[in-house]
Amino acid sequence: MAGRSKTYEAALARLNAYIKQEKLRVSMVRKAILEKVCLFKQPFTAEQLIEACADEFISDATIYNALNLFVAAQILQAVKRQRGRTAVEYELTFGSHSKIQIVCLECGRVTNVREKVLEEQIKEYKYYNFTPYRISMTLYGVCKHCRKPKREQ
Ligand SMILES: [Zn+2]
Predict the structure, then answer these.
(1) Which of 23, 89, 102, 131 is the most interior residue, by most CB within 10 Å?
(2) 40 strand-pairing partners
(3) One digit per residue, pLDDT tens: the chain, 153 residues?
(4) CA of 132 to the centre of ligand 1 (A)
């Protein structure tokens, strides 16, 4: 396997803690799926994960079970997104840095950007009994492709 990312190490630590807490069985298959999950740079669907795991001979049911487990362990969060049809996408609840998601209300295009100044400002805030790790924000608007004036027929 190629160099394991910090994200994977953090996700695996959380999974192991959850497995111990819930007295579940440790499974190599789950670790293999988690490794694939951590390779996604953007939110992904279950179908995309199944595709990514195609070489691993893992059943679809196992992948769906793993996704549910990762959500329960708060490694992933499921987000409902409208892209022509409503699809559930998964994204890591933590990572190396915070990001802002930019969503086009016209075409549903999703882009991630890093907003460092805002991130630093928010981390300055003091919350009672709470330690923030990362920030997740979604900004809705219109992308450059949809902003172009539509030509008359
Ligand atoms: Zn658009």
Answers:
(1) 89
(2) none
(3) 445 677 888 899 999 999 999 999 888 999 999 999 999 988 899 999 999 999 888 999 999 999 999 999 989 988 877 666 778 899 888 655 667 888 999 998 888 787 777 777 777 777 777 766 667 788 899 999 998 776 654
(4) 32
Q: Where along the chain do its domains lie?
A: 1-95, 97-153
- 147 Cα: distance to centroid of ligand 1 (angstroms): 7
pLDDT tens per residue across span 78-121? 887 766 677 889 988 865 566 788 899 999 888 878 777 777 77
Specify the CATH architecture of the domain 97-153.
2-Layer Sandwich (3.30)
CB neighbours of 106 closer than 8 A, spacing ≥ 6? Answer: 142, 143, 146
Distance 99 CA to ligand 1 centre (A): 19
- Angle, to 10 degrees, between the axis of helix 6-21 and the axis of helix 28-37? 140
Check for a shared fold between 1-95 and 97-153: no
For the four alpha carbons of 34, 38, 43 and 46, in that order, the dihedral sign comes to negative
How remote is the CA of residue 94 from the centroid of ligand 1, in Å?
27
